[in-house]
Write a structure and sequence with these properties.
Helices cover 36% and strands 16% of the residues. By secondary structure, it is of the alpha/beta class. Helix 10 links the parallel strand 7 and strand 8.
């Protein structure tokens, strides 16, 4: 029986950890690993056109499944291309193992062709970053990398010279049981007692929720009901907390809406649940703040805390809710619910008049129609920029849908590659990439990956021939837009030339039919919608202290634009408010 190589052992261990595919671009230093995958029925090699796509796809797969995903790049420039997608995965806390193959081990440090130093390059975007320089390091080093990625939630990078990958694996190597799931973390009794006292003493409590509330929807609702608290959320918390939420007061942050800002600034006690919300300008500095997070390094880095609680949100609330005293006074909650509904009523008027006749098409109208026509369990991947606005305001969460974007790293061009990773997890689940023309054109080559694998991803392209968010940032800063125009390109024609379904939509009456046909198409499809580049307008009164870059308080300064079915949700919640 032939002796197993290091590359074969590497692939076997990844497969045992649950990795089903490795995204990447082949290259000479990667050849031993790719050939090992070819001969291993438990894993597939997914050939993308750019390694950045590979990292984004792996990150999206990990976010959809909650399991380890993997990507690879060949030596030098190949693995260097991974870095942007790995930054995004790491900041999204997606468990990803990246293989950075390396130049021949005998040439390291001698300025060899394509030489870089991956152990230095990936240091900031990983929990673990080490090189296999000797076969004897296997499999312990790879197992350690896997457990870092899964256990800490983020990226591990293993670099390996191609000649090491080709060598025989060590005999009697130690392979231990792999950790493939994270435990829950319960705070200590002292922290729970302190938090209970603070909640009991406060008259007005607001909950502000982030992505750490995933899996804790029922617990948050039970807690909010018991203490009569409004519930706001950050963008990454929207999909987990907004649906079936009678206490919803909207979203805070750069793209916020509703009464979330007022609710977080007018309370006695603000409880931050599973959020690493980065914009401290939106957080109050004159109320008591408690933060609950499973990652202790997040505690207190955005605002001064009166209590830091290290724990999983669900487990924390399961301990806390039975202990707190029920509150009967709904005045604060009802006032915030009314403010929320009134705020949405005012905002929605901007794009309710003749939107089905407006040319160029309002992007809000496109997002609204898309929300209504997409499947109940669709996965949306959202480009950074104006598409974040449309996703935040129009995509309706329901507990089944997923919304994935570069919400922490803020990279362009993420939607298409993330859609690739999301679609590979389930070929029968609807995956919709909400792309801007700027982001799509940046990594457009990987539309060919959809065609090659016949992935049924539907790309809905918001084509305003500009970098719309950058123009808005320039406007807020008092600068004329410059360098933001894109050529007026017919992307549908490009899609058809590539062998996919492509249709261009220039009039609102064409939109529903185009989306319906694209969704019915069994393979990849692109709907190129020509949208109004002037869709967002800024209110006339903007004071200097309201602007830090583009840090606008969306409750004090509302970007004109609709809010879709969220207004209906707010009106529905008002039915719970007692009438005088």
């Amino acid at each position: 029986m032939a002796k197993q190589s290091v590359a074969e052992q590497f692939v076997d261990i990844l497969a045992r950890a649950g990795v089903k595919r490795l995204y990447g671009v082949v290259g000479d230093s990667l050849n031993p690993v790719v050939d090992a995958i070819r001969r291993n029925p438990a894993m597939d090699w997914i050939h993308v056109r750019h390694e950045e796509t590979a990292a984004f796809a792996a990150g999206a797969e990990a976010q959809v499944t909650g399991e380890l995903a993997a990507c690879a790049g060949s030596c030098g420039p190949g693995n260097l291309h991974l870095i942007n997608g790995l930054y995004d995965a790491h900041r999204s806390m997606a468990p990803v193992l990246a293989l950075a193959s390396h130049i021949p081990s005998s040439e390291i440090g001698l300025g060899y062709f394509q030489e870089t130093h991956p152990e230095l390059l990936f240091q900031e975007c990983s929990h673990y970053n080490e090189m296999i320089s000797n076969p004897e390091q296997m499999p312990r080093l790879l197992q350690t990398a896997i457990q870092h990625a899964i256990g800490r939630g983020g990226v591990s990078v293993v670099s390996m010279p191609g000649d090491i990958a080709s060598r025989p694996a060590p005999e009697k190597s130690i392979e231990h049981a792999l950790v493939t799931a994270r435990p829950t973390v319960r705070p200590g009794d002292d922290e729970i007692d302190k938090l209970c006292r603070m909640v009991d003493e406060a008259k007005r409590v607001t909950l502000f929720c982030g992505s750490g509330t995933a899996g804790a929807h029922a617990e948050v609702m039970e807690f909010a009901e018991k203490i009569k608290s409004p519930v706001g959320h950050a963008l990454r918390g929207k999909e987990w907390i907004q649906y079936d939420n009678p206490y919803d007061v909207g979203m805070s942050g750069l793209l916020g809406y509703g009464a979330a800002y007022e609710a977080t600034n007018e309370c006695d006690l603000l409880v931050l649940l599973g959020t690493d919300f980065p914009y401290n300008a939106f957080l109050p500095d004159d109320v008591k703040i408690v933060q609950v997070d499973v990652r202790p390094e997040h505690l207190g880095r955005r605002s001064k805390l009166d209590l830091a609680v290290w724990g999983d949100v669900r487990e924390t609330l399961r301990c806390l809710t039975p202990r707190v005293k029920p509150k009967s006074d709904r005045k604060f909650l009802d006032r915030m619910l009314k403010k929320h509904a009134n705020a949405l009523e005012g905002v929605v008027k901007a794009y309710t008049r003749k939107v089905d006749k407006h040319v160029p098409i309002h992007p809000e109208y496109v997002a609204s129609v898309l929300d209504e026509m997409a499947d109940e369990d669709a996965v949306f991947t959202v480009d950074t920029g104006m598409n974040n606005v449309w996703a935040a305001r129009y995509l309706t969460p329901n507990g089944k849908r997923r919304v994935i974007g570069s919400f922490s790293h803020g990279s362009m061009a993420n939607a298409l590659p993330q859609a690739i990773g999301a679609q590979f997890t389930d070929l029968n689940r609807q995956v919709v990439a909400m792309s801007g023309d700027g982001g799509f054109s940046m990594l457009m080559g990987d539309f060919l990956t959809l065609v090659q694998y016949d992935l049924p991803v539907k790309v809905v392209l918001f084509n305003n021939s500009s970098l719309g968010m950058v123009e808005l940032e320039m406007l807020v800063a008092g600068l004329p837009s410059y360098g933001t125009n894109n050529a007026n390109t017919d992307y549908a024609a490009i899609a058809r030339a590539a062998g996919a379904y492509g249709v261009r939509v220039e009039k609102p009456k064409q939109l529903q039919g185009a989306l319906k046909d694209a969704f019915k198409h069994k393979g990849p499809a692109l709907v190129d919608v020509v949208t109004d580049p002037n869709a967002l307008s800024i209110p006339p009164k903007i004071s200097a202290d309201m602007v830090t870059g583009f840090a606008l308080s969306a409750s004090k300064i509302v970007l004109d634009g609709g809010v879709g079915r969220m207004l209906q949700m707010a009106r529905s919640n008002l039915r719970n408010v007692p009438r005088p």
